[in-house]
Every structure is written in structure tokens, then in C-alpha cells.
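TL;DR need C-alpha cells for one chain.
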Amino acid sequence: VKQVAVSTINILEALGVDYGCLGKDEKCCGSVMLRMGDPEFERLASQNIKMFNELGIETLISSCAGCFKTIKEDYPKVGKMNFEVLHTVEFLRRLYEDKQLIFQNPVETIVTYHDPCHLGRASGVYDDPRFLMEKIPGLELIEMPRNREYSRCCGAGGGLKSGYPDIQNKMAQRRVKEAEETGATELVSACPFCYQGLQVGISALQSPLIMRDISFLVERSLQDTAPQKEEKKVRKVRKPRDDATEGPDSKGE
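>> reply
TL;DR here they are.
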């Protein structure tokens, strides 16, 4: 989901965070390989750990719940990592509490939040996304009956969406119907897999709900005007320096 990456980078730029992006050098985290039992996961994880360590990063942030869970909890079983791993919502909450992130503009909307499985049940990150949404002026959060550890899965992860799309479609529709019953106008999550999975349900039901990633809402509250065209924003991405012995002094990757 391109918009997730664009919004995240726009936020980092707006807040003056010293960051770097791998661009074409970025490899898959291997989450689906691991969940499906592919032994190649360890080789891929080792390559990524080596690259991250050589870059000298202090903090790696991911907007994908699956990548976050895999790198934070599964990679240490493969090799030593010299950096911390945070989901974007954790990083943004830290910036807010450090008074670096200040929400300026009202976002007049009613939302309901879907807890990604890898971020919620697997990693215990429930409060941070809700904390951010509660701080955005004008935004009203209405919880679905099944939330936090009881949240329904959207069916997008673990290879289910690719291998059994019909089952995933039914799971997504069930979750979307639950979201509709809250009276919210936007369905929010913090994972591009959930974004895609729930969008399947929205499309199948022709639901009036608008699918959003939480990064988009944060970006809207930081801006005085509507977001610019994506093409202009993407050019701001900075790649890490080639000199791996020194590495970038980045605060986020």
C-alpha cells in the first residue's frame, strides 16, 4: 500500500526526524515464509540482520504489523541485532510524549479501529494506536464489540489471502459488517496487509466505509493543507550512505 509509506515518510520529514530508507535494497522480512514453514527464512533473516547492523541504525521502524513482529521477535532467534525495533505507532507516540509531535489541525471524522493480529495479539501493542487517535483533534473513535485481544482477524496474513482468497474474503466481510454497525465512516488499521484485506471486504459488500491507515490520519492532522501529490512526496526519500563502516546517524529506518 503505497499511501502508508508515503504518509509515514511525510510525517518523518515534517517532524525533522533523521531517517533513511533502503529503497531498492530493501528485501522482504520473510514473515510469510516463516509462517508457512519455509526453511529459507533463516537465510533471509540473517542477510537482513547483517545489513541493518552494518548500517549502524539505532532504531528500525516498520508500518507493517507482520514485518514488525517478525523482525522484533523472530529475528533475534536467528542472530544478534544492534538496534531496537518499533512499530510506527510506538515511534510516533514516543515523539508525542517528547513533545516533538504536535497535532495541529482537526480531523473531523468518526472512525473504528481494527487491531492487526501481529501487532495486537502477537505483540501486545493495543494502546499506542488508540493513544494517537485520541490526541487527534476532531477525531472520534468508536470501538467494535470485538477489539484488542478479541479482535477478529481480517484473513490477509499468513499466506491465506494468496492461497485461499475465498476464505479471506468471507473473513474480511464479517469484520467490515462489524465495523459498519458502529456507525463510523472510516475503518482504520495499522498494517498494510490488514488495509488490503479489509478493502477486499469493503469492495465485496460495496460498503460506504473508507479504509485508512493510521499514518494517513496523523499526516492530515500535521498539515495545513491537503496532502500533495504522491510523486512529489516520494522524491524526499533518503537512502542510507554507501559507507557502511560509518553508517547513517539515523534515528529511524
